[in-house]
Amino acid sequence: MKAQHCVIVGASHAAAELCIKLRKEGWQGRITLVGEEDYLPYNRPPLSKTFLAGEKSVHDLLIRHATAYEKADVDCLPGIRAEAIDRENHILELGNGEQLNYDKLVLTTGARVRKLSLPGADLGNIFYLRSIYDADQIRPHIKPGKHAVIVGGGYIGLETAAMLKSAGMRVTVLERDQRLLNRVAAPEISDFFTRIHNEEGIEIITAADVEAFSGDEAVQAVQTSNLGEFTADLVIVGVGVIPNVELAEQAGLAIKNGIEVNAYTETSDADILAAGDCTFHFNKHYQRWMRLESIQNAVEQAEVSARTLCGLREEYDVIPWFWSDQFDLKLQIAGLSEGYDNLIVRGELSQGRKLSVFYFSGEKLLAVDAVNSPQEFMFGKRALAQFQALDRERLADTDVSMRDLLLTS
Amino acid sequence: MPLVKYISHDGNINEIDVPVGDTVMQGAVDNMLDGIIAECGGSCSCATCHCYVDPDWLDKIPPASEMEKDMLECVLEPQDNSRLSCQIKINEELDGLVVRLPESQF
User: What is the pLDDT of residues B30-76, one digit of tens each?
Assistant: First the structure.
């Protein structure tokens, strides 16, 4: 068989994994990685923390360094946007006017930030945070004593708030919902994080309806319809992301809340696969369709893609997990808590910096949120995978260690 | 450049030059080694870069943080010389370092 050409679109986390995994699984043909950004695939989580703080360099951020791609014989084309897919002729049109012929195409296009279309949203000093470019733009505005307003009390907003506060800024977080992390965590976790951020000196304002930004050239205030205005020298908006599906959509592939893929990460065109944040896929463990914004999902789907491309049919089947670092708090999440009807809390909600919440539907464990409690996280991950019946009484008893529970479960 | 010897569970040896400042995890990831998954990219969040440090080298490496220790207690088959390889930064003194990789990560 003639050596085939696999083209990967989007220099994301999924792409970094896929390039290498393809070679490991025995792909003989060419591999080309096309990415719009000027960098090789990099870790995005540090953008809101150590990279924004200037403690980590681009070199530190790269998932793999250039030598790794050379060794795997991957052609990297950074700084080039993919414009269109000609499915009939198996051609990818590039922004520089060139074309790439492909036998197999993998879309690892990720997601982009949701932008606000409010009056004044294009003023200076209003930023979003998703890329190295964004972080580089924000960094010069981090000045002790100045006021930063964060719009959006989700993970990105809270991580950035913590970093800016640690850098000496005055920080206000404006959240539209009644509580922080409303879409992703139990009220107990919201209360816990609100308390910690308050203790650190961050002002948390919930139920805030942001309606405009004001200022001359640069933003000077964030205006709400219900709570007045908040002065600001710097505004960072973190109100979610939108999957990059346009390329797939224009090519006529099936799209829902993301690019629809089957258990082998194939789209509605068997020669085009997709992996990572851009996909809408079925999760066997939770028995529902979903789109996940997570590194783990990107890595796992990329691995499935690599196997599919090499003729090994292995289904995607994972239990999602996530993490978020804020101040000295490490939140680790195993599973998805949506649909829970009861929970077990280990630790103190109202004091300290250690807590874990186990989410159940009836007797069935759905998820664990663990703050500075890696053992609870590791235990939860394993319990979810192995469907162990949990001794709920012992789980609620902090005198029983996770290690003991692991050994006896 | 310091040389790190990675020994897989089946005895396979890979000797890799790892730049000063990079981690033992990064050295493996950049060289397509199996046995270190490193899902979280080095933020001490996932414990999928677990390794066993050769006892002769243990005292040349700064001790594990409380977070790392807690995570290590819950990995499969923890030992006294267990470490997360993303937390071991390479310096000249670690030239010749030997780490073994657990079977569960292959």
Answer: 999 999 999 888 889 999 999 999 999 999 999 999 999 989 988 88
Place of tokens 């409303």: A182
- Taking the C-alpha atoms of residue A40 and residue A16, their distance in angstroms, rounded to an integer, is 8
Q: What is the pLDDT of residues A26-49, one digit of tens each?
A: 999 999 999 999 999 999 999 999
Secondary-structure percent of chain B, ordered helix, strand, coil, rounded to 5? 25, 20, 50
**Mean pLDDT of the residues in chain A:** 96
ipTM for the assembly: 0.90
Q: Among residues A186, A215, A45, which one has the least CA distance to residue A125?
A: A215
Residue A253 is classified by DSSP as: -
Class of domain A328-408: alpha beta
CATH architecture, domain defined by B3-105: Roll (3.10)
Q: Say if B40 is an interface residue toward chain A (CB within 8 Å).
A: yes
Q: Is B29's CB within 8 Å of A295's CB? A: no
- CATH architecture of the domain A5-112+242-309 equals 3-Layer(bba) Sandwich (3.50)
State how far residue B91 is from chain A, nearest Cα, in angstroms. Answer: 16
To the nearest whole percent, how much of chain A has pLDDT over 90? 93
CB contacts < 8 A, A to B, total 62
Domain assignments of chain A as residue spans, ordered by start: 5-112+242-309, 126-237, 328-408
